[in-house]
């Protein structure tokens, strides 16, 4: 958004542009509603044949193809009618029209969840019935377009529309000052829309399946994770698609490249996932065990570095003892990856009544998994025909195909060499100063997380602040113990309070307003305080950082100092 201008002519131009964009939106929306109406007419015509003696398609095929079209037509007809009414008066309700549309985006989620299957059904019916193929290849509406459209093209219009909504909101906000009567509601509408697009991963889907951006199955979220199975902690990878969650085992493909493949162990259809309420963790690894492993790894790393220094000084090759150290270090680090997370996350298969137990390190990660699963369930596609029953071999093929596009997030310990200095060990001094750029009043706090062998742990949390003066001011300082870190994550939460009037998830937890991940590197981080400005969801956060490494004998006992959170219950700190 722009600041208030003291130039009346500039203000007038902006106001004129705002009205011009709105009138264009009304035109575009009218066209979209008309095309939805065409879809409705064809829907009614096909409905009549379903109940006849010679149906062109079955009832199940009919329901799949036209899923949620009537509801989308009602939603957009109301939106258009309200927009026209309020734009003639130019009153204070235009922003509310957009906000109400954003609050109903779960309807689009349902449509998107079914979209791939709807296209497959159109293609299957076209191949099986010439009459259906002929009718749906050339749908004409002279008032709307000289060129005929296919049913597939018409079904793609809502997909394009939901992405256009976000762009339109950006354009509107650029044209009005923060004091404008519609600013707050338009900004909130944009926040909801952006959150929806992020959850449905629409952009990522296109990049992952460039040859077929209408893929019926989309990878929505994935991550390496620790599963508790057969009385042991095991490294797994969890894949959440729009219709199924699958858990896979890592399999080394051998050789020196340390490449790996996946083997699917189990899966649950999205509609059958039950997220069990977190309880006390009976499988928690004691903090003393974790400290012991860290100390051993720390000592071996020191011995390994000493060996390498000696070899360099004497201009000789590194001996066998060095290889032993490397092997032992890898074993200890692999154990640390498994034992560090202790936050319980339980899933259950509703049909089979079988539970699966996972360990996470961050409350944010647990919240992300839960929210994404709930979103997919509330926007679920209609029940699949039995011919489309899920199959473990089919999932194996999908996951193997996805493997090419995955960026490993298992911690660089898997890939780095023995003398890699990229992981930081020492004290990170960080001050959270202030944040500017949020266009409405809210109550915010910030969590600081750092990684440890691929897991993120919450290390500090600011107090809650309100931007009554336009700026959030914290000026809070923390000293964070880094124990082999390379990334820091800043999470900005919007708390439920007197200034929060959002309806989504209002009964559950704080809303994540935005986040940013900052790579920690000795190239820019050192003993001198450095100021950084980072962008988080169109806002600017100012922080100061400095790093004091542990050198020689000054290294502290791992996790021994106050403020270290490994092994502590996350609820006590976050």
What's the short version?
The chain is of the alpha+beta class and 574 residues long. The protein has 13 helices and 18 strands.
Low-confidence stretches: 1-5, 202-215, 383-388, 411-420, 501-508, 559-574
Structural class: alpha+beta
- Calculate the mean pLDDT score and round it: 79
Task: Give the beta-strand count.
Answer: 18
What is the helix fraction of residues, given as a range? 40-55%
Annotated CATH homologous superfamily of the largest domain: Dbl homology (DH) domain
CATH topology of the largest domain: Dbl Homology Domain, Chain A
CATH class of the largest domain: Mainly Alpha
Strand content: 25-35%
Oligomer: single chain
* Domain module count: 4
Within the largest sheet, what's the order of strands? 6-5-4-3-9-8-7
Question: How big is the Rg?
Answer: 28 Å
Main beta sheet, described? 7 strands, antiparallel
Instruction: Compute the number of helices.
Output: 13
If classified by CATH, what would the architecture of the largest domain be?
A: Up-down Bundle
Write up this protein.
- With 574 residues, the chain is α+β, with helices and mostly antiparallel strands.
- It has 4 domains: 8-208, Dbl homology (DH) domain (Dbl Homology Domain, Chain A); 219-282 and 342-414, Pleckstrin-homology domain (PH domain)/Phosphotyrosine-binding domain (PTB) (PH-domain like, Roll), CATH 2.30.29.30; 287-335; 424-572, Sandwich (Immunoglobulin-like), CATH 2.60.40.150.
- The chain is built from 13 helices and 18 strands.
- Strands 6-5-4-3-9-8-7 form a 7-stranded antiparallel sheet, with helices on both faces. Strands 11, 12, 13, 15 and 16 form a 5-stranded antiparallel sheet that branches.
- Strand 8 and strand 9 form a beta hairpin.
- Helix 1 packs antiparallel against helix 7 and helix 4 packs parallel to helix 8 (183-200).
- The longest helix has 43 residues, at 8-50.
- It is globular, with a radius of gyration of 28 Å.
């Amino acid at each position: 958004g722009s600041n208030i201008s003291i130039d009346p002519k500039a203000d007038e131009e902006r106001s004129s542009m705002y009205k011009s964009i709105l009138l264009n939106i009304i035109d575009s929306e009218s066209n979209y509603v008309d095309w939805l109406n065409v879809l409705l007419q064809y829907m009614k015509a096909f409905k009549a044949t379903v109940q006849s003696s010679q149906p062109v398609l079955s009832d199940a095929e009919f329901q799949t193809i036209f899923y949620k079209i009537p509801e989308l037509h009602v939603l957009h007809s109301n939106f258009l009618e309200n927009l026209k009414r309020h734009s003639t008066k130019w009153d204070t309700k235009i922003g509310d029209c957009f906000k109400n549309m954003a609050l109903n985006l779960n309807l689009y989620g349902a449509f998107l969840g079914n979209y791939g299957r709807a296209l497959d059904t159109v293609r299957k019916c076209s191949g099986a019935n010439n009459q259906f193929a002929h009718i749906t290849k050339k749908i004409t509406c002279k008032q709307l377009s000289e060129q005929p459209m296919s049913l597939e093209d018409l079904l793609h219009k809502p997909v394009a529309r939901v992405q256009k909504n976000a762009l339109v909101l950006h354009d509107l906000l650029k044209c009005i000052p923060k004091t404008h009567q519609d600013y707050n509601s338009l900004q909130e509408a944009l926040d909801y829309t952006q959150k929806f697009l992020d959850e449905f991963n629409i952009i990522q889907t296109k990049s992952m399946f460039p040859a077929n951006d209408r893929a019926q199955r989309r990878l929505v979220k994935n991550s390496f994770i620790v599963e508790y199975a057969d009385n042991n902690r095991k490294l797994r990878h969890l894949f959440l698609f729009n219709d199924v969650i699958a858990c896979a085992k890592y399999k080394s493909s051998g050789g020196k490249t340390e490449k790996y493949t996946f083997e699917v162990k189990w899966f649950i259809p999205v509609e059958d996932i039950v997220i069990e309420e977190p309880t006390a963790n009976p499988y928690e690894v004691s903090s003393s065990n974790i400290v012991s492993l860290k100390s051993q790894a720390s000592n071996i790393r020191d011995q390994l570095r000493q060996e390498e220094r000696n070899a360099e000084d004497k201009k000789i090759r590194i001996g066998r003892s060095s290889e032993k150290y490397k092997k032992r270090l890898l074993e200890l680090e692999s154990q640390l990856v498994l034992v560090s997370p202790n936050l319980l996350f339980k899933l259950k298969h509703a049909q089979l009544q079988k539970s699966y137990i996972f360990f996470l390190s961050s409350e944010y990660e647990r919240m992300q998994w839960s929210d994404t699963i709930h979103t997919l369930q509330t926007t679920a596609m209609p029940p699949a025909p039995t011919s489309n029953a899920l199959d473990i071999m089919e999932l194996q093929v999908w996951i193997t195909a996805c493997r090419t596009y995955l960026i490993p997030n298992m911690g660089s310990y898997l890939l780095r060499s023995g003398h890699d200095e990229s992981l930081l060990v020492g004290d990170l001094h960080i001050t959270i100063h202030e944040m500017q750029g949020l266009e409405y009043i809210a109550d915010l706090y910030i969590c600081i997380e750092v990684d440890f062998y691929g897991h993120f742990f919450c290390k500090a949390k600011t107090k809650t602040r309100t931007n009554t003066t336009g700026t959030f001011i914290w000026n809070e300082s923390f000293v964070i113990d880094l124990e082999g870190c390379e990334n820091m994550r800043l999470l900005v939460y919007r708390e439920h309070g007197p200034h929060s009037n959002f309806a989504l998830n209002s009964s559950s937890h704080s809303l994540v307003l935005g986040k940013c991940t900052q790579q920690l590197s000795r190239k820019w981080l050192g003993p001198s305080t450095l100021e950084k400005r980072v962008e988080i969801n169109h806002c600017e956060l100012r922080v100061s950082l400095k790093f004091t490494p542990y050198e020689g004998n000054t290294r502290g006992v791992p996790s021994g100092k106050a403020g270290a959170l490994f092994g502590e219950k996350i609820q006590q700190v976050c």
